[in-house]
Amino acid sequence: MPVEPVLRWIKRYGVGWRLIRASGKTTRVDDAARLLGVSRSKIVKTIVVVAGGEVYAVVIPGDRRLDMDKLADITGAKPRLARPGEVVEKTGYPVGGVPPVALPSHVKLVVDESLLRHDRVYGGGGEDGILLEFNPKELIELAKPLVAKLAK
């Protein structure tokens, strides 16, 4: 079950984050925002991208789009979105359920700096219908991702 690694990560770091079981599908930002009663900017997307043979998990606000040109500047190679089968193969999680934590060590985490204005956001919790409520500042402190301006 893809949720178990996320639960272990939360326990390991002792953060006050939680997994929320939604009453419906949450693969789309609008669905998750509606179910939680929050703005789209508080829903985050973890987008899996392949560039130069490397795999990146890019976390951006749900109401914004990933700027692939800015990501290319960071990766030094032309990025492309991972296909749904690749997302599962490379991360162990399905599209729409990829969390910003508990990722395989070969996946490089990149977080959009605009998320730091929030104390709580909601993202993939490992599978459809499960959302992770977390603090982006704690994510930065614990996961040590690259932080950059990537959303447009």
3D architecture notes:
With 152 residues, the protein is α/β, with parallel strands linked by helices. It has a single domain (3-148), classed as Alpha-Beta Complex (YbaK protein). Helices cover 28% and strands 26% of the residues. The protein has five helices and eight strands. It has helices at residues 3-13, 29-36, 68-75, 84-91, 136-143, and strands at residues 18-21, 44-51, 54-61, 80-81, 107-112, 121-124, 130-134, 146-148. The strands form two sheets. It has a five-stranded mixed β-sheet, sandwiched between helices. Strand 2 and strand 3 (54-61) form a beta hairpin. The termini are far apart. The mean pLDDT is 95.
Name the poorly predicted regions.
Answer: none
Order of helices and strands: HEHEEHEHEEEHE
Q: Biggest sheet, open or closed, and with what strands and sense?
A: 5 strands, mixed
Strand order of the largest sheet: 4-2-3-5-8
Mean pLDDT, as a whole number?
A: 95
Cα separation of the termini: 33 Å
